[in-house]
Design a protein that fits this description.
heterotrimer; A alpha+beta (383); B alpha/beta (266); C alpha/beta (334); A: 383 residues; alpha+beta; 4-stranded antiparallel beta sheet; 53% helix; B: Rossmann fold; 2 domains; 4-stranded mixed beta sheet
Chain lengths: 383, 266, 334
């Protein structure tokens, strides 16, 4: 793994930062306050390939590596986590399964639309009774002629309110004791596909999170992703990848908050000097800086492994666990350092505080990450 | 000292000032103009910059935005060149690497205190018709028509290729780099590096034909006026200020801003 | 052509915007001061058609000699024609110094002329002097903006400099003054212009703007962000003035390029200038020479802008602005 970014990664970071600071910064607070999805800016991002980060050029994608992809999510999230979420979910868990598991025909049919952002994707696994326990999905898919009929409800679907395409995990095998699930590509225009109300969330409010209802929704059989029974396999592989995206988000949020904290500490005067001269504040700053640096290394290590084609699941879990923990801590400290102003919506830091929390929950809670990491270590023959 | 030139056409170039870290803003506008020409007329854009090795960053940025070729002129001998010398070196590079250009575009001014001389001086070196502060370019065959605003005059000018323009920041809002372009900028795009030797420029001739001006001293500006200092909480300071200067301000704006006294009886 | 011809300082007559832009007169004034030191004469160049008015004006404002070419072919400004004319004249008369106003035209024309004459040029000078060894001392901003450089052109002649309008003060006119007026013929091998002027019109829209404002409220990066910057408009409105911006602010997209104040921006001459959150880079302050009364607000009392101001208010620019608006709203009466 390269410790110093190469010229290309530097250019990626500079370019995305420039876009984020110019286009996202002016609207980030307002779209959070009004919980409104910024269609115009997203439109600009579609034209700039933000929705086809790792899609090959032949399908209209940007063909970037995983490190670049993480940098992009990080830089967007540093300014506006809700938009970062939209981009990482689309790329990381909606497009990624296509790249890994789709047939040539499915790629040809869907990748160009996904890469251009004509179709925004969503990944729907979670249900009311199946959160961490993802094997307990109750959505069913029953074969009927040349199609599958799906019934069920998915909740907390990121991009759910606006997605054009969703990957739905449904039960296709009903043997008690050995449930078998599969993944289906569903276009929002299919009859029987309905969206629920938008969730009213603590953070990431500009992202349209909603439930998806499938009521006798007919899906052509060619829209089965992978083979029947591949649900677990696709799910686990996708979540491994999704974790990198969430880690990048969390890192971006932490970084943005941290910069605000340092700036404020230098400017705010109490007892006739900047609070940055107080030892307690200095301790906070030192801790935040160190933990963010460590989080950064964990994230980019996982990305490098993925780019090298090595197995990266455990490392991705570590990155997600650590980056999200750091994000929560750093944003909380940042509010603290800002004192009363940090609690007011006049400053951005309370938004970062609210946005950070969910990074410890979605794409596998921190508890699940610990489980994944432990299992990975315990199953190794040699450490 | 580095300057930036975007160039173009069937050749185009771009140059840059390193201190800013990224491409000089005016040059971004020039590059945007070049890119729009390329979109309409399928042109080839060559970007050129003169500066230290780190200037490569800016060439990569230009490639990511859509330039086709990049040239870096880098040589210790050229450090501290004034615009006279810089335009000379650029001319040599252009004659050597893309002599068949149609149009050269430069940013109208740079972000540091560089004073927009390189464009006109390069035009003189290459004996080209030129126009500065161009806001709009239109091409028809070999004829270039430009619109610009200079000294409160709106002008439309015409000239034939080969020509040079400097592009103002009024128009040609720079585009964002497409993410696919970022990959393109690094794969299969060699940046050609030239030093004075490869340009056939010898140290002695730089002495003779190079910089004409010489900096004798650099110093900090001295404060100019003795002045009144006010400090304290914002509301107090504002009141103090207004009380002191209300008459002066009132006279200028034609309205009274004297504070109403509480015991004013009307 | 006498061998012992007196040295001459040439000032290019940029008469196009005469009544708004007095830069030629300002340069003549400075040239007169410099000429005293090196024992030279000040010579104004006027190339155009029906130029008697300018001949009279430049004479009244201090020129010792006028080199005038009056011909219909010179009705509109033309860089190419002027280059050829001055090249020929300079070869014949060897001016010691040529000064050109840094108008848009001058900034395009002067560098090209310097190249044609194979000499050095300092642009946007904020000061001109004579060194102990008799050279033109060109004082121009250095990279960082807070530094100035003293520059000389040691070995080449003429020594050239461009100077922004508002840097020097013109000499009051004296219509009794006399100058030597040489009415020269247009050279007959004048090159055909490769740049053709298709049309031009004076742009009226810009007449009543920041350049004419008597109160200007200028903001810099110290305002913090775009929203806070935009509040300056409220103060400007209360005072019947205009908002100006520094270069970093324009580059950050908080304000349009059209309100840039400074060397590269609009030339302002307000009666009162408010300077909010501006540190005072030379590129900005060099354009403030004609402001009567400057009020600077900055967190840092040591900032250059604070030292230049008549009143320096130490505080957060945005806070002071908000308070000032509040107070003024209370106080303003017709």
């Amino acid at each position: 793994m390269q410790l110093n970014p190469c010229a290309k990664h530097k250019l990626v970071r500079d370019s995305v930062r420039h876009f984020a600071e110019t286009e996202l910064a002016p609207i980030a607070a307002e779209i959070d306050r009004k919980a409104v999805f910024p269609v115009d800016v997203i439109g600009k991002m579609k034209a700039l390939n933000y929705f086809g980060l790792q899609v090959p050029k032949e399908f209209g994608g940007a063909a970037l590596d995983s490190v670049s992809s993480a940098i992009i999510v990080e830089e967007i999230s540093r300014i506006c986590a809700a938009v970062g979420l939209c981009v990482t979910v689309h790329n990381g868990v909606a497009v990624y399964p296509f790249l890994q598991f789709a047939t040539k025909e499915q790629k040809k049919q869907y990748l160009p639309k996904l890469a251009s952002g004509e179709f925004i994707g969503a990944f729907s696994l979670t249900e009311a009774n199946a959160g961490s326990d993802s094997a307990s999905v109750e959505t069913t898919a029953v074969k009927k002629n040349q199609a599958y009929v799906l019934n069920g409800t998915k909740i907390f679907v990121t991009n759910g309110g606006i997605c054009d395409l969703a990957l739905i995990f449904a039960l296709t095998g009903f043997e008690p004791g050995s449930p078998q699930s599969s993944v289906f590509i569903i276009e929002s225009k299919y009859p029987g596909f309905l969206r629920g109300e938008l969730e009213d969330l603590c953070g990431m409010r500009a992202n349209p999170v909603s439930s998806l209802f499938l009521e006798d929704c007919c899906v052509p059989e060619k829209n089965l992703l992978g083979k029947i029974g591949d649900g677990m396999k696709i799910g686990l592989a996708t979540l491994d990848n999704g974790r990198i995206g969430v880690a990048a988000q969390a890192l971006g949020i932490a970084q943005g908050a941290f910069e605000a904290a340092v700036k404020y500490a230098k400017e705010r005067q109490q007892f006739k000097k900047p609070i940055a001269s107080l030892q307690t504040i200095q301790n906070y700053i030192a801790e935040m800086a160190t933990e963010i640096a460590a989080a950064r290394l964990l994230l980019y290590r996982a990305c490098s492994l993925k780019d090298e084609g090595a197995s990266f699941g455990c490392e991705a879990s570590m990155a997600k666990l650590y980056c999200s923990t750091v994000a929560s801590k750093v944003t909380s400290l940042t509010v603290q350092i800002h004192g009363g102003y940090g609690y007011s919506k006049e400053y951005d830091v309370e938004r970062y505080f609210r946005d950070a929390k969910v990074t410890e929950i979605y794409e596998g809670t921190s508890e699940i990450q610990r489980m994944v990491i432990a299992r990975s270590i315990l199953s190794q023959l040699i450490l | 000292m580095v300057t930036e030139l975007p160039w173009d056409e069937k050749a185009g170039t771009l140059r840059r000032d390193l201190a800013a870290g990224m491409m000089n803003p005016a040059c971004k506008h020039a590059l945007e103009a070049a890119l729009q020409i390329k979109e309409r007329f399928s042109a080839k854009i060559t970007t050129v910059t003169m500066g230290p090795p780190a200037s490569e960053e800016v060439l990569r940025e230009a490639l990511a935005l859509g330039a086709d070729e990049a040239i870096l002129i880098c040589d210790r001998l050229l450090a501290g060149s004034d615009t006279f010398a810089t335009s000379l070196v650029l001319k040599e590079a252009i004659k050597k690497k893309c002599p068949k250009f149609d149009l050269i575009l430069c940013g109208a001014y740079t972000a540091d205190s560089e004073t927009a001389q390189v464009g006109p001086q390069l035009a003189e070196e290459l004996d080209l018709p030129a126009a500065a502060y161009v806001e709009k370019l239109e091409i028809s065959g070999r004829t270039l028509r430009v619109r610009r605003m200079v000294d409160n005059f709106r002008e439309t000018l015409e000239m034939e290729f080969p020509a040079l323009v400097t592009v103002s920041m009024e128009n040609y809002k720079p585009r964002y780099a497409k993410l696919s372009g970022l990959d393109d900028a690094f794969c299969g795009n060699e940046i050609k590096t030239l030093d004075t030797a490869s340009l056939g420029i010898k140290a002695a001739s730089m002495e003779k034909k190079g910089s004409r001006t010489k900096v004798r001293k650099v110093f900090l500006r001295k404060a100019q006026k003795g002045n009144v200092l006010l400090q304290g909480a914002a509301s107090n300071v504002v009141n103090e200020f207004l009380d002191k200067y209300q008459r002066k301000i009132g006279t200028v704006i034609g309205k009274s801003i004297e504070e109403k006294k509480l015991d004013d009886k009307k | 052509m006498t061998r012992n011809r007196k040295k001459s300082i040439w000032v290019f007559g940029d008469y196009r915007n005469y009544y708004q832009n007095r830069v030629t007169l300002q340069l003549i004034a400075r040239a007169v001061a410099l000429a005293k030191i090196i024992e030279a004469e000040v010579c104004a160049l006027i190339f155009g058609h029906e130029i008697d008015e300018w001949i009279m004006e430049y004479t009244a404002h201090g020129a010792d000699r006028i080199l005038a070419i009056d011909d219909p072919a010179l009705k509109s400004y033309s860089t190419e024609k002027y280059l050829a004319i001055i090249e020929a004249l300079a070869k014949e008369r060897n001016p010691e110094i040529i000064l050109i106003g840094a108008t848009d035209f001058g900034r395009e024309f002067a560098p090209r002329l310097a190249k044609r004459l194979k000499t050095g040029l300092s642009a946007d000078c904020v000061g001109l002097d004579i060194t102990d060894d008799g050279l033109l001392l060109q004082i121009a901003p250095s990279f960082c903006g807070n530094m100035l450089a003293e520059i000389v052109t040691e070995f080449h002649r003429p020594q050239m400099a461009t100077v922004r309008p508002g840097t020097f003060k013109e000499i009051p006119h004296d219509y009794e003054r006399k100058a030597i007026v040489e009415r020269l013929p247009l050279m007959n091998n004048l090159p055909k212009s490769r740049v053709r002027l298709i049309e031009y019109e004076r742009s009226v829209e810009k007449e009543h703007t920041i350049e004419n404002a008597s109160v200007i409220v200028c903001g810099g990066r110290g305002m913090g962000n775009r929203e806070k910057f935009k509040k300056l408009q409220e103060l400007a409105k209360l005072l019947g003035g205009d908002v100006g911006a520094t270069r970093p602010v324009v580059y950050a997209g908080w304000a349009e390029h059209g309100v840039l104040v400074g060397q590269a921006g609009k030339h302002i001459k307000p009666k009162i200038l408010f300077s909010f959150g501006i540190s005072g880079a030379i590129q900005h302050t060099a354009g403030l020479g004609e402001a009567d009364f400057i009020v600077a607000i900055n967190k840092n009392p040591q900032a250059t802008m604070m030292k230049m101001a008549d009143v320096a208010v130490v505080g957060d620019a945005s806070d002071v602005l908000n308070n000032l608006i509040k107070e003024l709203k209370k106080r303003i009466r017709e």
